[in-house]
Amino acid sequence: MPMTDSWQTAEIPGPKKASLIIKPDIADALISRAKRPIMIVGHGIIEYEVEGKPLIDCLIALSRKAKIPVVVSASTNKEFLSRGFEPAAIMSAVEISSRLTDPEWKGLDGKESYDLAIFVGLPYSMQWTILSGLKHFAPGVKTMTFDCVYHPNASWSFPNSTIKDWAANLKGIVENLED
User: Fold this and answer.
1) How far is residue 130 CA from its own chain's centroid?
2) Model's pTM, two decimal places?
3) Per-residue pLDDT for 43 more than 70?
4) What is the largest CA-CA distance in the chain?
């Protein structure tokens, strides 16, 4: 399967498709340029490891280094709290995504809207639909996915890759932010 084909068969995104994140530097540059990024995390993060460590630890390190607020689902909140990390909000992915389409919404802190939404760990079909909605109804919000499958409705996405390659990229993103 080519790197820019939808991970799930029969998913047709339309003429505008996500640009590939082929190395960590790309994601780091996008995160650094964003004025107001936000990360939306689903329960899928509990299943994976990045070089022997739970993926959640990598995401916490990323959030802390880049100062990105994290929105988690109720089932994932316990995992974050057990690591001493307080998410910015507990909210369903559909609810936060709906708020991102509202140009009048001033974010979780009431200051201003977000310009980059990073998604990771949501079920593929749910994320497909959410990203499609944001692509069409939130033109001021760029989207990025940190899953190991290509999401064509995002602005930027990792290609379809092995867990090992994907984990190396995530680790690289966090390490590059230390510089």
Assistant:
1) 12
2) 0.91
3) yes
4) 43
